[in-house]
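Folding Query — how this chain folds
Tokens — whole-number codes for backbone shape
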Amino acid sequence: MSELFQGYSAVQNPNRVVISPKRRMILVTLRERQTLTLDDAVELIGRDIYANKKFHVGNVLSAMVKQGLIRRVKPGVFTLPTP
């Protein structure tokens, strides 16, 4: 698991991406399953969100796509980027 997150620590280098616990859960799940839907992600990380779960989880996923951490296959379906 550590090789998946290698290079993502911002403790000593501010240019590196910080991986939050929710993002880490998404990445670990994608590594195990290959694909993740928006609904799966809501179940995975949306437990502590009171309202508009899909909206907030969708924002997390969109930010991860923009950072290159995951890839959008089609609307609502995500995978890890190919090397």
